[in-house]
Amino acid sequence: MQRGYLAWSMADSSSSAATNDDIKLLKESVSLVKDDVKLLREDVKSLTEHMMDQLGRMYDANERWKDEIIKETKHHFDVSVENFNDAHRDRLGDHDMRITRLEQHTRIRTA
User: Fold this and answer.
1) pLDDT for 36 beyond 50
2) What is the DSSP annotation of the chain?
3) pTM: predicted TM-score of the whole model, two decimal places
């Protein structure tokens, strides 16, 4: 028997009484529809679980990426601050040496 939802072999005339075979075919069609609905529900449930798993993985990957970006940004900031401090420290040292030389030259302070 070919799988189908409607009993195509039922009498065409609406005035004809349904035969036992017609009722049997109709019951088989309803049973097939119920089976397909059950399978469809299982497919939807499985697909939903798969999608939720993938969303969870994407969230975790996004968190790792965000943490990595924050770590790299902080590192670059720290390096920039250190470079700025070194440059500032060098300039202050140069100023201290110049002040000392001026003080010695003008004999404001003896070394």
Assistant:
1) yes
2) ----SS-TTS-S-TTSPPPHHHHHHHHHHHHHHHHHHHHHHHHHHHHHHHHHHHHHHHHHHHHHHHHHHHHHHHHHHHHHHHHHHHHHHHHHHHHHHHHHHHHHHHTSS--
3) 0.48
